[in-house]
Write a structure and sequence with these properties.
globular, seven-stranded mixed beta sheet, five-stranded mixed beta sheet, alpha/beta
Length: about 325
């Protein structure tokens, strides 16, 4: 499959981008409500990774935290004697370069391998920085999704997600294919003295969702299958992201499988680290969404009920798209 779009398809996608912008633009504003009921600030922090102070959560396993800033992911760096695996690299060239520089500092002389938990822009639209520095390693479904949807996602983020003052973060971004893929549900990557399991869960939060499990340390990177005290992102933003790119029952199955693995530390896509309570919380939330949606009624009332049940969770702008997905 080609990683490039025809001119005619680009024209069609530009029209889709305009249509979707209105539906996704309010999310970050609603997400950042902090003071006073319903107050929405006029700006939010620039979604750039600060890679200066990685935290070592297990021997040779580092996390660059998201600082609870929307569109900033938790980034992982796993160091072996021969290779270092980077899990997600953030949005934009500057963030990816900061992650690469920190990886080189933590793992001098090692080969560097980048993998993504999934192919959404805030997790990997800076991957081109790693193309010359080492290997880019995705599962086959993730690579296929990136080839099909990468450019529309890039255009949609620029037009409908990032405010004008942050759109420069996408300047110079190329949709970069992996240098290597794996087929099937699982592969193992030898970093030298330790092995990492890469496991594709197929279609759940997005096509090609992947968990990264370091067995010797009991650490699992979950990507956006799991958020911590943040309303999970059911990314139903048609026509940019439609229902065919989401599968809630498969998502809940994946959460059960993560809990069954019993990792000591789970690194969510966004939010603080935790244990098996995190997949359990997200699965319970998805179940609550399904129950409330099945009951029908006014959308605003359904959103209010979710907020009543989960009053301390952040980024409430993600509730409405989830309910719209379930009531479509």
């Amino acid at each position: 499959m080609s990683f490039y779009l025809s001119t005619d398809r680009r024209t069609l996608l530009s029209l889709s981008t305009v249509a979707v912008a209105a539906s996704i633009a309010p999310l970050l504003g609603v997400a950042q409500e902090t003071e006073g009921e319903g107050s929405v600030p006029t700006s939010y922090p620039q979604p750039s990774i600060d890679a200066r102070h990685p935290a070592e959560i297990a021997p040779g396993v580092f996390v660059i935290p998201d600082r609870r800033i929307p569109l900033v992911p938790n980034v992982g760096i796993i160091v072996g004697s021969e290779r270092a695996l980077v899990v997600d690299c953030g949005l934009g060239i500057d963030s990816a370069e900061a992650v690469l520089e920190t990886t080189r500092r933590l793992a001098p002389g090692r080969e560097i391998v980048l993998t993504l938990t999934h192919a959404h822009p805030e997790h990997g639209f800076g991957a081109q920085v790693f193309a010359a520095a080492g290997r880019i390693f995705y599962n086959a479904l993730q690579a296929e999704h990136l080839a099909r949807a990468g450019q529309p996602l890039l255009d949609g983020f620029r037009a409908g997600v990032l405010p004008p003052e942050h759109q420069f973060l996408l300047d110079g971004i190329d949709i970069t294919p992996p240098t290597q893929t794996y087929n099937g549900t699982e592969t193992r990557l030898d970093l030298g003295g330790r092995q990492v399991v890469l496991r594709s869960v197929g279609l759940a939060h997005s096509p090609g969702d992947q968990i990264v499990h370091l067995l010797d340390a009991g650490v699992l990177f979950a990507g956006d299958l799991i958020e911590e005290r943040i309303y999970p992102i059911v990314p139903y933003f048609p026509p940019l992201i439609g229902a065919d790119d989401i599968d809630l029952p498969a998502w809940r199955t994946a959460l059960g499988a993560i809990a069954d693995l019993a990792p000591t530390i789970i690194v969510p896509g966004h939010g603080n680290l935790g244990g098996t309570e995190l997949p359990e919380d997200v699965s319970s939330y998805l179940g609550a969404l399904e129950d409330i949606a099945a009951g029908g009624g006014d959308l605003d009332a359904m959103v209010a009920e979710i907020r009543r049940r989960y009053p301390t969770w952040e980024q409430a702008g993600y509730i409405q798209p989830a309910l719209q997905y379930l009531t479509r």
